[in-house]
Amino acid sequence: MSEPERSPLLSSASTTREDSSAFPAEDTTESTPLLLSSSATPRYDGEHDDGGGDNAEIRSLASAASDDESPKPTKGSSIRWPSVIAMIVLSLSSIAIIVFAFFVPAAVEEYAKAAAVLEPTNLSLQSITADGVRARIQANFRLDGERVKNVHVRRVGRAATWLVRELATDETQVRVYLPEYGNILLGTAAVPPFVVNIMDGHNTAVDIVADLVPGDAEGIRTIANEWLEGRLDAVRLQGKADIQLKTGFIPLGTHSISESLTFEASKIPHMPEYNITRLNFEEQPVPGKDETVMAAEVSVTAYNEYPVSVNVPELGFEVLVPGCDLNAPYILVAALTTSPVTVRPQTDVVVVAHGTITELPESLTSLCPNSEQSPLDLFFKKYLDGETATVFVRGQKRNQGLFAVTGTPDWLADIISSITVPVAFPGRSFDNLIRSFSLTDVHFTLPDPFAEPGDPDADPKVSGTIEVLAALPAEMNFSLNVSHVRADADVFYGSRKLGELNLSQWQNATSTQQAAGEDREATLTITSRIKDAPLNVTDADVLADVMQALLFGGKEVILGIKALVDVEVQTILGQLVVKGVPAEGKVPLKPLSGDLVGSLEPKIGDIEVIDTTTTSLTIMASVNISNPTPYSARIPFISIHVLSNGTLVGEARAQNLDIKKGNNSDLVVSAIWGGGGKAARDLISQYISGYNTSVTLRTHRGSIPGQPLLGEALSRINITIAAPKLRLPDDDDDDDNDDDKDKDQSQVHFIRDATFHIFSSTATFTLVSPLRHNTLYIDHVNATALYNHTEPVGRIEHDLPFAAPPGLSTTPKLPVQWSLDSVGYERMREALGGQLKLDTRATVGVRVGRWTETLWFVGRGIGASVRI
Fold this sequence. Notes:
Blueprint: H1 3-6, H2 13-22, H3 25-28, H4 53-69, H5 81-115, E1 116-128, E2 133-143, H6 151-164, E3 166-169, E4 172-178, E5 184-191, E6 195-197, E7 204-214, H7 217-228, E8 234-247, E9 250-264, E10 274-285, E11 292-304, E12 308-312, E13 316-321, E14 331-338, E15 341-343, E16 347-357, H8 362-365, H9 375-384, E17 388-395, H10 410-417, E18 420-426, E19 434-445, E20 461-471, E21 476-477, E22 481-493, E23 496-514, E24 523-537, H11 540-553, E25 557-571, E26 574-589, H12 596-600, E27 603-612, E28 616-627, E29 632-644, E30 647-659, E31 662-674, H13 678-688, E32 694-698, H14 708-714, E33 719-722, E34 725-726, E35 751-757, E36 762-769, E37 776-787, E38 791-798, E39 802-804, E40 807-810, E41 814-818, H15 823-830, E42 835-848, E43 851-867
Parallel strand pairs: 1-12, 10-21, 19-29, 27-34, 35-43
Antiparallel strand pairs: 1-2, 2-7, 3-6, 3-8, 4-5, 4-8, 5-7, 8-9, 10-11, 11-16, 12-15, 13-14, 13-17, 14-16, 17-18, 19-20, 20-24, 22-23, 22-25, 23-24, 25-26, 27-28, 28-31, 29-30, 29-32, 30-31, 32-33, 35-36, 36-40, 36-41, 37-38, 37-39, 37-42, 38-41, 42-43
């Protein structure tokens, strides 16, 4: 060993003092001991230790030896390596402490956060306890280093987790808070001990059973309602726990952890889509009571897309409907109890609920302020229109009704009773609800001529018996009785709207319910007699087409009906008014007749001239007609133009006519005859001559007062009828015997017979006047008598007026100018004392009151008696 290495690190204090006085400072630096002797070092009590006893002696010997053996230090051997090594180790230790105390934990923490992968495989609620729920959580846990972006953090993390390998926890209480909602406690979970492998890429199957206890019920309600209302954009959860970690048997201490997790709206589980697969209402007796209630059963199916399993016990709920407006409180209508529900991952979940409705609350059926509808009406309107109505479901604190549940824990009842869930209640289409719609015993009433425009009396009215066969929805399995109906109906002919049938007043109704059999559906037959329902014709052209089809089409005319019907129904819940039920049907109208015009068989009875002018007659007559149609009608007033060969010759009017089915006698009509010139004269002349004459009837703007467009539209339909036959005073009153073919031809003429006097060259005629109340005057006659239609017998020219009173009358003797050289005259002489048939052609001037007219007359087969 060299001398320097044998030099002690410690030297005596005395030597030091002596050397320091004998040598220069630069020479003594290297030999100065690192530690001074105790004698030169101040004591803790403030005095110097001057040596003594054995210790002092030992120090003296050591000092002497040091002086003798130690060479003088040189400049080349001044570095002491042990000191350097000690300093390096100390520095490295400091650095290691800094790295492992600060950098490594931070890197490991960053690595753990980025590399941790937790894949839930199943969540099942094993049971519901008095305090909460017991849940089984199954998941796969691993650390995936490739998820860490920072390569240095990844290396440190992999190294640290490789060294530790496994982490274990003791039982831990995890508390979850809602920082954005006053830091309220959402719930706590008691997590049992578990061990996970934290080596990179190693998978650990986690299977734990934890007790979950809900926290503040008000906070849960707030979150749930915001989520249900779509107002929850994001939610931040903050979990806090004190976790005791260990690896193997080495405890790693207790760590307080606080982590926040934010769920965006798109990541929050949404309300699953559901279908109401069954809805049934039926009457059900109340156990132990002599009464029945309305029982409801509903089945809802939804698909569970989450890895969650749960067995839900029976729960009680309340069903509510909206009030009059958004701010009105919901109205309780029913109590429901769900059957136990089994929820399994990725499968359909079926929820079946039973409930009862004991009565309808008054607030549900009362009219809303400033409205004609109640909350029930508003709900049914959406439902019956096929729109989606909304009901609200809320948990019950205390279950009521026929299906009561008593085992629901208080904490669960508090939560579900504070959460109201809107449930879409899809409407249904009633397109095929009406199976048939018929209108029989139809009676029409024309508008009142004195009604103001817009008054219901200004519209035509319809009366009849409505029979409706309706199919009851499958969910309605209870008895009901329809007592009244009312409706506003649109009437269509093809695709065009004819008008509106107003049944705004309640109409009495009866109903018969037929239960569903094995091969058919349940039906309800509703019968109602409507009376004087106004028919507002909105398109007169369509009505004209309908009338034309009825008159000349020869086949059934189908009218379409689309209506919104209000129905007053008696059920076990009491009297219920259902408004706005859509009804659609067809009303077949039978054709008026194959030959309506010919079937009318009009006959004119009593005729009276009630007014005259120089150019016109106003006539009142009684008319007999036959109505072959299945319809009846009341005509307050109607005016129809009478035309001959397209020329207006008169106007017929009728008031307060009641036309029934079959024969109608003594219908009073009036007519104004005037104008028309030659056409009018020819028509009367042909008529009194016994020709087959006809007239055309046509409506006009004034035909139906208050409905000018209707009269104008119907004017497109021309009805041509044979001129009514006059009932002459001596005709047989029995219609069955009143057959023209069975009578003597002379019986149909106004001249019944004639008597010719050969020697006095005069003739008298027996006349039959159709006027029973007026005298007809003949002002002049210019007539020719013919034998065998062509051979003249004689000529009469008379310019002195004479009267033809009502009934049969004989003319005065009229002068005759014989055709002496004619065959006709010879036949006349041969018939002296007997009779022969003569024809006549005449021009006659007639007068009634102030009216005068010149007519022509052709008579055939007039029986003429020949006297001397």
